[in-house]
């Protein structure tokens, strides 16, 4: 039986799991430190160690030890050339040491030199990278297509805004009003671009406008809003308006059946749901959801890179 190791690389933590025929082996789901501020080789070795650890976790579950790993699918933040596997992250204080590094090649070579891993790899073993927001969306589409959904728009709200539009299983780029990149983060909005307003930075700027200090975080603001703090409620109200205004042109042109949100900020969706809904371009068919399985969806999307 062949398996795929899915790895979700985040700024603070890395999550990994083994999948077989698209089904997650739940006992293998593990969280690791990201090592995002470490040197290049330290990070590559860390990814290799994660692959080794996942194989060992899988071996614990198998009576027959003759397993074969078909590939490793990695959800990685942008910017990057995902086909080549090269990171272009720079100046974010996370994974800066991987700037212009071919992660696929470096990891493949490091794995090949390992004494343990190669004997568990299939002959056609491969490593693929994909945009983390896109792989999340692919996983969500896989989930929703089972109930007949054909068009889905996914947005991850966090340090920045990730976006992916999928039509009948195909990631849309350069059509239906969607940018050639498929991403809307750098689309013009107000006095800048979408990501200036729809991001952690965007909420921080709104918080400053409403009298909060610069060091308050989204979680703290959300707690205050839940407790009825008027200014905190105004921050999220304004954010919901900005979010609707920013995505409306793309929702209008693409016409998805469902919008799915992920990312850390989406955990506070209840705080800006009302203002977002009031300013959205809705059709009778459009549904809006916050993913209840974002990690599982990302694993499924990463698995899809190999299969």
From TrEMBL:
Gene3D superfamilies: 3.30.420.40. InterPro entries: ATPase_NBD, ROK. Keywords: Kinase, Transferase. GO terms for molecular function: kinase activity. It holds the Pfam family ROK. Coiled coil: none annotated. Belongs to the ROK (NagC/XylR) family. This is Glucokinase. It comes from Gracilibacillus orientalis.
């Amino acid at each position: 039986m062949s398996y795929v190791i899915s790895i979700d690389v985040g700024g603070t933590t890395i999550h990994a799991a083994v999948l077989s025929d698209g089904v997650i082996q739940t006992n293998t789901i593990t969280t690791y430190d990201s090592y995002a501020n470490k040197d290049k080789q330290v990070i590559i070795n860390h990814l290799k160690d994660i692959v080794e650890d996942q194989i060992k976790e899988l071996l614990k579950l198998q009576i027959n030890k003759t397993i074969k790993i078909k590939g490793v699918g990695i959800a990685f933040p942008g910017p990057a050339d995902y086909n080549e596997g090269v990171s272009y992250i720079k100046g974010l204080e996370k994974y800066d040491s991987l700037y212009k590094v071919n992660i696929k090649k470096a990891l493949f070579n490091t794995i090949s030199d390992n004494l343990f891993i190669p004997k568990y790899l299939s002959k056609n073993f491969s490593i693929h990278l994909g945009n983390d927001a896109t792989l999340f969306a692919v996983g969500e589409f896989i989930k929703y297509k089972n109930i007949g959904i054909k068009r889905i728009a996914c947005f991850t709200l966090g340090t920045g805004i990730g976006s992916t539009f999928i039509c009948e299983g195909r990631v849309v780029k350069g059509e239906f009003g969607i940018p050639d990149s498929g991403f809307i983060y750098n689309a013009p909005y107000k006095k800048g671009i979408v990501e200036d307003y729809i991001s952690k930075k965007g909420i921080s700027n709104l918080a400053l406008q409403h009298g909060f200090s610069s060091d308050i975080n989204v979680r703290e603001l959300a707690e205050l809003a839940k407790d009825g703090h008027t200014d905190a409620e105004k921050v999220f109200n304004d954010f919901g308006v900005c979010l609707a205004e920013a995505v409306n042109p793309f929702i209008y042109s693409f016409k998805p059946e469902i919008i799915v949100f992920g990312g850390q900020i989406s955990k506070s969706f209840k705080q800006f749901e009302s203002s977002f809904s009031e300013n959205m371009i809705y059709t009778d068919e459009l549904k809006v959801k916050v993913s209840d399985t974002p990690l599982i969806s990302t694993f499924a999307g990463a698995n899809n890179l190999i299969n």
